[in-house]
Amino acid sequence: MEKQLKELKSHLMEAYDLGRAGAVLGWDEMTYMPPGGAAARARQSALLARLTHEKSIDPAIGKLLDELRPYEESLPYDSDNASLIRVTRREYERAIKVPPQFMAELYEHISKSYNAWVTARPENNYKALEPLLERTVDLCRQLADFFPGYEHCADPLIDFNDYGMKATTLRSLFAHLRRELIPIVQAITSQPPADDACLKLHYPKADQLDFSMEVVKQLGYDLNRGRQDLTHHPFTTSFSLGDVRITTRVNEDFLGDCLFSSIHEAGHAMYEQGIRMEFEGTPLAGGTSAGVHESQSRTWENLVGRSRSFWEFFYPKLQAKFPDQLKGISLDTFYQAVNKVQRSLIRTEADEVTYNLHIMIRFDIELALLEGNLLVRDLPEYWHVRYNADMGMRAPDDRDGVMQDVHWFGGLVGGSFQGYTLGNIIGAQFFTHALAAHPEIPNEMSQGKFETLHKWLIDNVYQHGSKFTATELIEKVTGGPLSIEPYLTYLRSKYGELYKL
Amino acid sequence: MEKQLKELKSHLMEAYDLGRAGAVLGWDEMTYMPPGGAAARARQSALLARLTHEKSIDPAIGKLLDELRPYEESLPYDSDNASLIRVTRREYERAIKVPPQFMAELYEHISKSYNAWVTARPENNYKALEPLLERTVDLCRQLADFFPGYEHCADPLIDFNDYGMKATTLRSLFAHLRRELIPIVQAITSQPPADDACLKLHYPKADQLDFSMEVVKQLGYDLNRGRQDLTHHPFTTSFSLGDVRITTRVNEDFLGDCLFSSIHEAGHAMYEQGIRMEFEGTPLAGGTSAGVHESQSRTWENLVGRSRSFWEFFYPKLQAKFPDQLKGISLDTFYQAVNKVQRSLIRTEADEVTYNLHIMIRFDIELALLEGNLLVRDLPEYWHVRYNADMGMRAPDDRDGVMQDVHWFGGLVGGSFQGYTLGNIIGAQFFTHALAAHPEIPNEMSQGKFETLHKWLIDNVYQHGSKFTATELIEKVTGGPLSIEPYLTYLRSKYGELYKL
């Protein structure tokens, strides 16, 4: 079986390399590409997507997988080789259902749509995006239809990112979480609001970038295998296990945007950097699901980056970097400012407590768009109505309304958002177990030491890449299924203390 | 024939797009890639090179070219379609001689070798590069051997970059030029040297970059379809006719490096940006030869950027940017400084007169390495001996000796350098004709207006892309063959005045 396995790996490596070459083109498009490059880039991305897909569905892979079945069955389930064959088969069987030409069309459309969003958002011009978004919804429905037998049209799309999850499961999980969150939000927002004026001063771009780099380096993001660049909407991308890059953006009049975006993306990147190098070039060389990926970005951003321990170490450094802006602002005031809970309009700036309400709005909208119960042309107004109902606020325009997030304009409608809330839930589950194993972690963090936590996450989560499904991994790490309790316990404890509930 | 032509274009577009995707990977490797990305990038570049080559030699292209022959013969030679078919056939017939697997090996090796050079050069560690360069020479000989019947082993390699040129032709051309240049160099260097102390002060990086951007924009480099980034060894790269990028580097203790590199690369880029958009995605969408390409980089760098007219406009702006460094330095002194002629060690910093002597050294070495008359292990010492003979100087180390140029370490040995000297020659031929047609050009330049020259170059040279060979283009523009006379006339006139010969 040595020969077949080697042959399989060589096929997989080519698909991987073509996909990652496509990622380089995507990264460049979103960081450095001049406007004139857009048309050809859409074509080139589409071509690479098609070729990657063609490689992934090469019948030779199917044949090798068949030949390797007895070998796979002779191995322990969690051995590297059994896992490689199993995960490859799962992805192969999914991939062969989608024609390469469709993938090319989809990617070409996405690239066009993304570039239109870059221009249209600052101009508050939703009309320019409307036909593009209509086509995206249409393409997403077509994509779902390659997987007949679904319960909800979004299910196949959700399954791409969070394997095994369904719209109905998520609807009931989110409803449950919502019932628990609303009283917490109400209790907090009936208190006087925290004073976050210190975050809203002028913080020069270069200094913000410097500080964010200093922080992510200290957390453990390896710059020998990564780098940070500027973009419109921060993301992480991996070109290989040796090159996992993050992006950020800077608002000079708000300190939180760049720093927490950088930490968030560094969380994603540390997950990818922690994968075992032996998995390079295979389907195991990536995070296992959107939910587990977000669990790590949200862990580093919030459970670490918005903790008191973290700021005990970093606040004096931040004050030294911005002495004028932070003169006379105590650690307590600053800690309360970065944890201010409030109903708000912008997802990426939302606090830990209300964040999921933003996600639920988007999740419901995705399902309604796919069902046809909401039309693309009615979306901006529906957005405002829904924000008014859930948050008691209305955005002044579509720029900070429906156009604020890149997802639907630079990717798919359906399956794009549930991962964030799953991430909040899973992140708290894992973090609770890390703290139980190493109660010294908070104290270490207050001294700028993050190795114990980082190493625990590598050992228990990161190293496995996609070897286990999210469900398997959660079972393996916590001994039980997905549960919202650790997350709620965390929120009640932290915000109970902060807001003296 | 409409159908076949459309089909041909669609094949060519895929090869083009794969090649340009590979260029994006190469650009990233040389500008932003962290060290950890090198191994996978070598593999990915090799894969794209192989796939590009496979697409280029698709037998379907050969079949279409056969079917299109009667159509081609029915069209005027210089019609777009006849030219497309003719140039495609020439490239196809060359490409089918090289196996795709060889191309993949070559590119993988080049990527490894480039990354080794990035590390080894600052460490002055030629030993680390020796085995890699030996393999490069070996691969270049193998590449030449796919084209049996050559007169000199370098001929097929020269032909890649300067179609129709041969080692013997170049040897005699260079010998002729050398005979004319040496007395000029001797006459100048027997004068007191120009005072270039003003260039060797501290010029902060950010200000140098700002100024270089201001200059290239003014010259006509379109930033809507381009951008400038930092690298180790400046280059221009094209991802499409809508995205042609330049790179530069900064020496904070020498003003000339960044500025003249930027202008040089902008010259290459303006050539590519000037190609007719209808040629996008075809073999016509690129400069026609290394020599013609260098003619344009050298024209903008030297004939324009080192002219008195140019500095009449830009010197006051430069002084405003660097008031401390240039206080009390007259335009005359500055103009003499940027045109200081001296025997020197570094090619990229050499003046217009001695520049070709650097090229001739490299050209001779390339031939000797390929012939086997010079061994890679003897190269560093031979370099010193040769510089001593030709320049009367010996580099203090290999860093500024044989390792100074990226070409042999990030590309081929053979055919890499003749283009620069051909460029100096051709550039002067074209420029002389532009001046004859528009005697107002120097006066316009002194007012910061470069449109007349730029437009003449677009109309007469750039727009054609690769439609005509270098020989055809020179004939078309000048009415005669390649000639060193305009170049010598230019040098004698400019330097005669500068050094009062």
Could you walk me through the main structural features you see in this protein, from its secondary elements to its overall organization?
Two copies of one chain form a homodimer. With 501 residues, chain A is mainly α. Chain A has two domains: 2-120; 167-498, Neurolysin, domain 3. Chain A contains 21 helices and three strands. In chain A, strands 1-3-2 form a three-stranded mixed sheet. In chain A, helix 10 (255-273) crosses helix 11 (290-304), helix 11 packs across helix 17 (418-437) and helix 15 (355-371) packs antiparallel against helix 17 (418-437). The longest helix of chain A has 30 residues, at 2-31. The first copy, chain A, is globular. The termini of chain A are far apart. The model of chain A has no long low-confidence stretch (mean pLDDT 96). At the A-B interface, helix 1 and helix 2 of A face helix 1 and helix 2 of B.
Order of helices and strands of chain A: HHHHHHHHHEEEHHHHHHHHHHHH
Calculate Rg of chain A over CA atoms: 22 Å
Separation of the first and last Cα atoms of chain A: 62 Å
CATH class of the largest domain in chain A: Mainly Alpha
The strand count of chain A comes to: 3
| Lateral strand order in the biggest sheet of chain A | 1-3-2
Label the overall shape of chain A: globular
Please count the helical segments of chain A: 21
Binned strand content of chain A: under 5%
Largest sheet: number of strands, sense, barrel closure of chain A: 3 strands, mixed
